Each structure stands twice: as C-alpha cells, then as structure tokens.
Amino acid sequence: MSVRDLLVLGSASAVPTKARNHNGYLLRWDGHGLLFDPGEGTQRQMTYAGVSATDVTWICVTHFHGDHCLGVPGIVQRIARDGVEHPVDAVFPASGAAYWARLRHASAFRDTGVIRERPVSGERMPLDTGDAPFRLVARRLSHPVEAYGYRLEEPDGVTMLSGELAARGVRGPLVRRLQQDGRVTAPDGRTVTLEECGVTRPGQKVAFVMDTRLCDGVRELADGVDMLVIESTYLDEDAALAAEYGHLTAAQAARVAADAGVRHLVLTHFSERYRAEDEPRFAAEAAKAFDGEITLVHDLDRIAMPRRRTSGGGA
Fold it and tell me: Are residues 168 and 41 in the same domain?
C-alpha cells in the first residue's frame, strides 16, 4: 500500500530545546523517502518515529548551517552499517561541496557506494528523478549562505469515466490501450480519444522551504502546492530580526500560502527564544492571513497529504 505523509523528526531552529530536536523531515512518497535537512540527532529521532535508513532514498540539504546538516554523518554511516542496497541521491548546494565532503566522511567507518551526490547550482535546477513517481526541482532562496528550497510534483494523471467508456463500447484491454496510446478503435469502428473518456487528475505537490527571507523563490516553490512545509522562525513582533538573519515570521509564511493557493500550511523551525506558551501565537498570527488548514508541528508528528484535488484543480 502506498504511503504519502510527512514525518517530523525535529522542528527547532538554531538551538534544540527539551521539546524540539534539530531539524529533520522525512517525506514518504510511494516507496520513496526524501529526508530533508537532517540535523543533529536525526538518526535517533528516526528510531522513535519507527523508520530506518532503508526508508531513505533521497537526502536533500537546503544549506550548510549546522541545524540543517549536522545529522548527515550519522545518517550516512547508518546507511552503510545497515547495508542499504538501493541508491540514495544526496542533493545539496554545490557551493557547499567542501562542507558536504567533511560531513560525508566525518569519521572512520566502512563506507558505502550507494550514495550518489547531486550538487545543485543556479537559480532553478530540475533534478533527474529517473523512474521515481515525481519530479523534483531545487530553487534558490535568500539567506546569508547559499540556500535552496525543494518542490516535489507528481505528474498529472487521468481519471477514466466509466459511463463514457460504456457508451462507446470501450472495455477490457481497450481501456488500457486508450490510456497508453490516447486513442483506440472501438468495436463499431469509431475512433475514441482519451479526452472523450477521461478527465485530468491533478498531481499532488509539496514544497519544502527552510531558512529564507521573502523572495521570488519562496513564492515560486509554494505556487499551488497541496502542502507547504515552511519555516516560521519568528513572530511578527520580531520581523526585523527575521529580515536581518534571513528568516520568515509565521504571518509572512501564511501570506505566502494564501497568495499561492496552498491547501495545507505546515509551520516549523521555531526559535528557542519563544516559550511553549507562545506556540498558540504562531498559529493565531498565521490564521489571520491564511484560512486553509494550518499545522504547527511538534517532533514525531505524522502529517498525511491532503486528499487529491478534483479535476480542474478544485479542492
């Protein structure tokens, strides 16, 4: 059975707290596992979440600040120790290749050959995902060090209309051929097209946006996604700090979601300057700008993908 959900392995920002581990997010998608920004302690958090190194097929690092990458050595060595046989694609900013190399070989261990390095550069870079059931693109963001966000897209599909098929006498193997070729010859000799018997089923989309100021890259990544996983390091009262250090407030993240037509807004990466009793304020500030579903995450949360959109992009 295919699974599509987000496992939150950590949700703090620069400094972990008693309640929040450094970053770590595992997006499970039809047998693939995309591990975003494994911070310190991610390996142990995966154990608590009930997942293992064998579940990881991609490692995607947004940038090389420690809270987003210090878990790389443990994950890499666990992949090796557990004898993971499938390829694991490692995506990271090309400008940080030296940091990646240090993390990748941080200590002595029996190395693995399954990790394929995929450095990204430029403003926008599509990634070759082979036969994976999704497309992946990296987009440059605005942070004091080079940083990228990621957008995963499932290609659009087609929902077949049983009534239209029956009316044209298309059944059995002819249906599969119609899906593959786009047209078939019906038993009565008529040519039947896919457009006559099916409607577009929009593919699901997820965006992952960590440390950044507001910029075109944020808006492009968020455009029309079903789930936006986005940093909300600060409350609006600290917007000046957010701009200075290259971060977003909860309200800014929510305005992006509202403007982009996002369905589910997932807020994370909270500064340690705030106390537990401040958490409702993040959700409240976001709700003023965004009237869709909002989740303020906690470590080890599991967040399911929203139900598919209907044809034509409706909810």
Answer: no
Q: What residues make up the domain containing 289?
A: 4-156+202-313
Do 231 and 251 touch, CB atoms closer than 8 A?
A: no
Q: Summarize pLDDT for 29-79 with one digit per residue, the tens.
A: 999 999 999 999 999 999 999 999 999 999 999 999 999 999 999 999 999
Same domain assignment for residues 195 and 215: no
Residue 32 assigned as binding residue: no
Contact 265, 290 (CB under 8 A): yes
Query: Global pTM?
Result: 0.90
Give the end of a domain, one of 133, 167, 199: 199
The HSE-up count of residue 254 (CA atoms within 13 Å, CB side) is: 22
* pLDDT surpassing 90 at residue 94: yes
Question: Annotated catalytic residue: which of 67, 89, 226, 299?
Answer: 67
The Cα 52–Cα 123 span in angstroms is 33
Angle, vertex CA 132, rays to CA 194 and CA 306, nearest 5:
75
Residues 38 and 73 in one domain: yes
Q: Is 67 a catalytic residue?
A: yes
211 annotated ligand-binding residue: yes
At 313, the pLDDT band (50, 70, 90 cuts) reads very low
